[in-house]
Structures are given as structure tokens and as C-alpha cells.
């Protein structure tokens, strides 16, 4: 019994069959849950070869590792207990005390807080760079700069930079690159194909797609994943077998889900861009978006995430309280639509001054667009926007 190494031509077929155990266990069509922590020993060469659930080497893990690597066009992959476990493990597998990191100016709040607090406490410094100003990147370099960390589509501002230029710059200066590819998902973009060294995901989001587990993934070369695995074995952030089973099941429909979310998000973004209550829409699928010229060349679709600024901060709560189809909740990437204020959720750990400098104001609404009927979704947003405007006028 072993995980199949066969890869298929399309991402959709890989999502169903890459890495599957062959021959099928007891003729089971799906991978059974190996609900055991301990396996018989034999042939273990070192600590990381010991068959034990914390070492992420159960059959459930093996299937996922092969499948995620296949859909990202990578040599290897590793699943983790959460997106943050993937992000922190990937970063710490590259840098150590005294090293320096270049980062995108606006990142997911959890990543930003890790860099500001935990990494700093370990003696690892970082410097934000503006992806729209490549001429400034060289000035941010230090003798101990080892890593360049970015997001494919930034959370929550939906920025897409010149990612090919990032790879070229990193190679010129011998930097390792890590990219968070959660927002577009491998259906829309595969960073390994343009030269990124490591890709991280919050697999809680689009890979799983059903808002019922927490998981993460790291993807890259065999050598880099081996190094990350050794570190994760020490940190203990493995994914349990039942969550592996749910993640494998969720991934099977990712192609269908994400393509529908691409369509819905584009139509919703186009609708919002015409509303008087909205001052700006952030979505790389809009030709007016600053990152569209890069996304158009690199992506197969623009994703299910968008953000927009209401005309005033005071309109945010009335809007969130008025929508009836989207749920007002954190996270993203599930089949249901979600709305949230990043200033009160993902970026609440930053100071008000830090949020303001980034553009994460109280008027910013982030939308994870689901697979609902788009006409109903637009009708609901329309009514909620009208209500938010009325309630703001009454308060004034």
C-alpha cells in the first residue's frame, strides 16, 4: 500500500486522483480515516522516519501531500494544523536570529503580528516594501536579508503586485521567496510555476471550502519541505487524520467551487463599482484595479475575494446588520458568502494608527463570495447598501 505518484494533465483530475492510495484499501473508493496515532516500527532511519501521527506520515497525510503538490506543480507538500502554522513554520525554516526579511507592505493581520511581535522577539527583523515601487526594493536590503515574503492577492486590500519582478529580484540577491497563495487558490494561480520557492495556504479556506476544519499547507521543493517537516515535527503543529480526511474530501470540488466564485465575485464587484454608497472597490478582475495588469497575465481567474470602501465609517455597521444572505463572520473561502470589517477582525491586533497607514479603515468591508445565486446576492447587497445610507442619514 502506497500513495500513487501519478499526476494527471488537468488540475480537476489531480484534485480527485493524485496521491490516491493504490491498491485501494479493502476496495474502498475513498481514503479511509486512519484514526490511530501509532504504527509498528521497522526500517526507521532517524527520528523523522518514525511512524507516528505527530510526524505527519500517516496514510491520510501522504495522500494530501501528494495531491497538494500536484495541484501546485511542486515536488512536495506538507499539511499543518492551521494556516498560521504553515506560515510560521515556513518562515522559521528559512530564517534564524539575526536574519532580516523583506515583506509586502500590507499582509494578513496574523502574519503581520507574528512578524511584529514573535519574530522580533526571536531577533528576526523585517522591512515592508511597496510592491508597486520596484525601484525602492534594493534600498530595503540588508547584509542579513534572507527572505522575501508576499501574498498573491493581499489580505484585505486585494493588491496584486508584479510577482514575476519579485522572483527576479529575489534571485538576483539570493533571497528565498515565500508566497501566501490562499486567496486565488491553485485553481487560479500556481506560484511555483513562475519561480517562487515556497507556497503557503490557509487550507481552512479554498482548499477545504466548507468552513468546517482548520488546516494549512506548505508547498515547494523536496529539500525545502523536508526542512519544514523537521521543524514542524518539533513544534507539533500536525493535522489530525480526521481533518486530513475532510480536507481531501473538500478539495475534490475545489475546481467547481472556485470557478463559480470567480464568476460571482466579478459580477458583484462590477455591481458595487456603480453604487453611490461605495467609494472604491478592490478586485483584481476589474480593469480599473491597479493590480489588474499583473493578475490578467498570471491568473486563470481573479478569485472569490473582494473588498470595498463605503462612503463613511458610519455606514459599515448598518450595512453588516442589513445583509441577509452573507453571514457576518471571519474567515473566507467557503461555499457560503461572508462579510466582515477587517479593522475589527483580521487586523484588530494592529494599532489604529497602523491600520490607518495601511488603508484598513472602519469603512472597509471584505467579502468572501460564495456560490449562491448571484442575482439574489446582488439584490441583497443592493437593499443593504440602501439601508446603510438611510440609517447614516438619520444619525446625521
Report the CATH topology name of the largest domain: Aspartate Aminotransferase, domain 2
Strand content: 15-25%
Structural class: alpha/beta
The ordered string of helix (H) and strand (E) elements is EHEHEHEHEHEHEHEEHHHEHEHEEHEH
CATH superfamily of the largest domain: Type I PLP-dependent aspartate aminotransferase-like (Major domain)
Describe the protein's architecture and organization:
With 396 residues, the chain is an alpha/beta fold. It is built from 14 helices and 14 strands. The strands form 3 sheets. It has a 7-stranded mixed β-sheet with strand order 3-9-8-7-6-4-5, with helices on both faces. The protein has a 5-stranded mixed β-sheet with strand order 10-11-14-13-12, with helices on one face.
Give the secondary structure arrangement, pairings included.
Layout: E1 2-3, H1 11-17, E2 21-22, H2 59-71, E3 76-80, H3 83-92, E4 100-104, H4 109-121, E5 125-129, H5 137-140, E6 145-151, H6 163-172, E7 176-180, H7 185-188, E8 198-202, E9 216-220, H8 222-235, H9 241-251, H10 254-272, E10 278-282, H11 292-298, E11 305-310, H12 316-322, E12 327-328, E13 338-340, H13 352-358, E14 364-368, H14 374-395
Parallel strand pairs: 4-5, 4-6, 6-7, 7-8, 12-13
Antiparallel strand pairs: 1-2, 3-9, 8-9, 10-11, 11-14, 13-14
Amino acid at each position: 500500500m502506497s500513495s500513487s505518484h501519478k499526476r494527471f494533465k488537468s488540475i480537476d483530475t489531480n484534485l480527485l486522483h493524485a496521491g490516491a492510495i493504490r491498491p485501494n484499501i479493502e476496495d474502498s473508493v475513498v481514503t479511509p480515516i486512519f484514526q490511530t496515532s501509532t504504527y509498528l516500527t521497522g526500517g526507521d532511519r532517524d527520528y523523522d522516519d518514525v511512524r507516528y501521527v505527530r510526524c505527519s506520515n500517516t496514510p491520510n497525510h501522504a495522500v494530501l501531500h501528494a495531491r497538494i503538490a500536484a495541484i501546485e506543480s511542486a515536488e512536495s507538500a506538507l499539511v499543518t494544523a492551521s494556516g498560521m502554522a504553515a506560515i510560521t513554520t515556513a518562515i522559521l525554516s528559512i530564517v534564524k536570529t539575526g536574519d532580516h526579511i523583506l515583506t509586502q507592505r500590507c499582509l494578513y493581520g496574523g502574519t503581520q503580528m507574528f512578524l511584529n511581535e514573535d519574530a522580533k522577539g526571536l531577533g528576526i527583523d523585517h522591512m515592508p516594501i511597496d510592491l508597486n515601487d520596484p525601484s525602492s526594493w534594493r534600498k530595503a536590503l540588508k547584509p542579513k536579508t534572507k527572505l522575501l515574503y508576499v501574498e498573491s492577492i493581499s489580505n484585505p486590500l486585494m493588491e496584486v503586485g508584479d510577482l514575476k519582478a519579485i522572483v527576479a529580484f529575489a534571485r538576483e540577491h539570493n533571497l528565498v521567496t515565500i508566497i501566501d497563495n490562499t486567496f486565488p487558490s491553485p485553481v487560479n494561480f500556481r506560484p511555483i510555476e513562475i519561480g517562487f520557492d515556497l507556497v503557503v495556504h490557509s487550507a481552512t479556506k479554498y482548499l477545504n471550502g466548507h468552513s468546517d476544519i482548520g488546516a494549512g499547507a506548505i508547498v515547494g521543493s523536496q529539500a525545502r519541505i523536508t526542512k519544514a517537516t523537521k521543524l514542524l515535527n518539533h513544534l507539533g503543529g500536525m493535522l489530525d487524520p480526521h481533518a486530513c480526511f475532510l480536507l481531501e474530501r473538500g478539495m475534490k470540488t475545489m475546481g467547481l467551487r472556485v470557478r463559480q466564485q470567480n464568476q460571482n465575485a466579478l459580477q458583484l464587484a462590477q455591481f458595487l463599482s456603480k453604487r453611490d454608497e461605495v467609494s472604491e472597490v478592490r478586485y483584481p478582475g476589474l480593469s480599473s484595479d491597479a493590480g489588474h495588469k499583473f493578475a490578467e497575465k498570471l491568473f486563470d481567474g481573479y478569485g472569490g475575494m473582494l473588498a470595498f470602501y463605503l462612503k463613511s465609517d458610519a455606514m459599515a455597521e448598518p450595512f453588516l446588520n442589513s445583509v441577509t444572505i452573507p453571514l457576518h463572520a471571519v474567515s473566507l473561502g467557503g461555499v457560503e458568502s461572508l462579510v466582515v470589517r477587517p479593522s475589527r477582525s483580521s487586523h484588530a491586533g494592529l494599532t489604529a494608527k497602523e491600520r490607518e497607514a495601511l488603508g484598513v479603515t472602519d469603512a472597509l468591508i471584505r467579502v468572501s463570495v460564495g456560490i449562491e445565486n448571484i442575482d439574489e446576492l446582488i439584490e441583497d447587497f443592493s437593499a443593504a447598501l440602501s439601508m446603510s445610507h438611510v440609517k447614516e442619514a438619520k444619525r446625521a
